Amino acid sequence: MRNAEVIRQWQILREIETRRTGVTIHELADMVSVSTRTIRRDLQALQEAGFAVYDEGDENETKRWRLDGAPFRAVQDGLSVSDVAALYLSRTVVEGISGWPLADELRAAFEKIERALNPRMREFLATLPQVISAEAGPRVSAGSLQQVDTTRRLFEAVRDRRVIAMAYFSAAANSLKNYTVQPYRLALAQGGLYLMAWVPAYDEFRTFATERIERLSVTDETFKRTRELPARLFATSMGVFTGEPEPVAIEFAPRVAMIVRSRVWHDSQTLTDQPDGSLRMTLLVSNDWALRSWLLGFGAAVKVVAPASLAEAIADECRATVTQYTPAS
What we know:
By secondary structure, the protein is α+β, with helices and mostly antiparallel strands. The protein folds into three domains: 1-135, Orthogonal Bundle (Arc Repressor Mutant, subunit A); 145-222, SH3 type barrels; 245-325, 2-Layer Sandwich (Alpha-Beta Plaits), CATH 3.30.70. Helix content is 38%, strand content 25%. A hairpin with a 7-residue loop joins strand 1 (53-56) and strand 2. The longest helix has 18 residues, at 308-325. 20% of the residues are buried.
């Protein structure tokens, strides 16, 4: 019941805010399908919560309700109710980012916003997570003080264009390797924080997961940015890889077709319904671990049509999985 009230009052607040000439009680009642008496109670509740909702006009039935944005000018001139609520709710997203270099600064900014709101308004906004919440997905383990320090130093190195030397655990080599690199950008993706850096020894950009940096030294040597990174670093991958894209065709069984159809898995995807209820998807992505992992997650409900190399890789993985679960004779 309380959730329904919060949703309704939030809808009323946003409607009043967006109507420059105000809105009547009857219009609000029609919008949320409740009585005018309920609307009056909601308006009173919003006023008690500290929102500057007021009415204009002589007759009760034709009074138009408006919102004075003054309470938010202490935070930032022009910041709307929706802006404040969005920032308030986004704390849960920030809290899920382990070791992010600006996490402390952003938390401090949230605290300043909170201090600019009165207690009743904070109490009202605190009910919104009951209606909508942000749950953190897969992410790196909770950041240690060393990890936070590492990401902060990386942030400063990228900003100041300083060459860094680091000991990095390479998953491909399954060993610790030493790199001297030019750090170009930090990127948040797939629940982790990644460093995109130019590696002179290999004459190419490489992606480094910051949690696998075991030792880091920021040198006094600076570098010039002579190369450009794309705005979207991992646009060709289903994950955090940067390989060359190739056409991929896959078919999903009818039992998962609706689930697949309901989401955009990659910007390049095109979907075609099949007569038997299955779904065909074509993609232009890199044939990397992220793609294979995603396909394997659907189990027997997906089949790779092309390319043949990808189909064989998935088949090999499935055979290895069967062997893993087959009791030794």
